[in-house]
Amino acid sequence: MTNLEKAIFQFAENRCYSASLKETSSLFFSTEEITQNLTISRTQASRELNQLVNNHILFKINTRPVLFSLREFFMQKYQIEIAEEYESIENFQNQLNNVSSEKVFEKVIGYNSGLAEAVEQLKTAIFYPNNGLPVLLMGETGVGKSYFAQIMDEYMIREGILQEGSPFLTLNCAQYANNPELLSGILFGYIKGAFTGADEDHKGLLEAADTGVLFLDEVHRLSDEGQEKLFNFMDKEVFSRIGESKERQSKVRLVFATTESTERFLQTFLRRIPIQIYIPSVSERSLFEKRQLIEYLFKKESQNIKRTIEVTPRVMDILLQTSFSGNIGEMENVIKYACGSAIAHSDKSRQVEIKIKDLPQKIYESFDSPVELANTEEENLVFSDQVSFSTSTNTAGELQKFVQHLIWLYQDYQKETGYTVKYQLHQQIVKFMDDVIFREKQRNQAALEKFISKVMQEIFREIDSHTKFQYDGNLVLLLSYYIYHYSLKGIHSTDFFDDDFTVFVEKNYQTELNQITPLLPEIEKRLDVSFTKADQLLFALFSPH
Prior knowledge:
Keywords: ATP-binding, Coiled coil, Nucleotide-binding. This protein is α/β, with parallel strands linked by helices.
């Protein structure tokens, strides 16, 4: 990049990442703005802007005037590919509107496994009528409570529950714990003369966050009086500034966070918060999720330092076996330190390699026993500074890809015998089943998923005991996975099957269909789900044969 290109890039970054700008329209800029801000000619500004578009750094909308913005920002925010050019604002906005709001939660590692139950609780709070339900996020320091609150806000905006640009305000109650009067003033506001130093009327955060979200961190540091004022507000949706009798209204969604047990709160306060969500510590996460967290942080750091990062298998093993008492926050600091150390010892190339020597000393000191290291023949893990999308599996996309692959196989081999086609399909199905079973054993299951597995085991054992149907543990696990990740979320294989493939399965998998179909009404009744004809066909394909 030339110095001028860097200056324009910096301008675009400042525009997009400014905390005060949330409206989509405010994230764009024109050639004229660059001309004025960088004091260059319009011709030069236009040439440099178009060069940055050609280099995939900016994109443009061909309105009058032409508008530009940062591709990376929108790709990260919406988890989609952004084209170089759009014909109109409407075309661009349509692409954003078509992005499923569920993608917001895909940014939460463990959203479909260890944190699946937490995500469902959050949705319950969000969609409850009349301004939702208050939420209490519980967990150790650094587990991601504030990030979870931000994800909640982003999801509500994407769903249209909150307006884009609505306030998201944060207060750490611990900062003012020794001055409860000041804390009350910040929260509820005050009028002139209410107390010493109150020289003018002051709007509190409850009022300022009207139509948006107020996130109160370390809420256990609120005094009993402060908690009482808050639960009175939750009951009536009215409050008064300190020193006045006038009642004020605010339609604000409340999210609380604490590192303490619920015993620290007034029970009358807790009773007003029906949604209490526990965020697990890093040590409570599965090894699979812990690895995802580490990989996500290396990807993020790669983008921060604008370099490709290589991590040796030995480093990954050490990080996986480290107990991070400070959770994700400490993990991120360790990874930043390692990257900084590697850069300091590198030749300033575009690529840095993280080795054991780059880890901070406290990591080695934390091990009481020898670390089990990986085979030295394993390849380094590579994290590119190019924008990466979701770190989690997109379950709907996974199902679509799997079914589409089966259809392609069928089309490729349909001129062969039915046996040949079934053999090819079987190979692909076994691979899919193996992948699912391996993943399931690597991660923590949500409580609902465990319940589904238990019910499914009971149903299959009952059938096995008085029919010729043979119990198959892998099939039970796979069907439980399907029900939890697809059926309960309204995703069905019907969306991806085609007519020719449907006819083929009905004709060639009669035995399997006859075995699996009688089970489905009982599963539907006990788990409160419904299956389509295409679901039945897919289950027949999964059945042992």
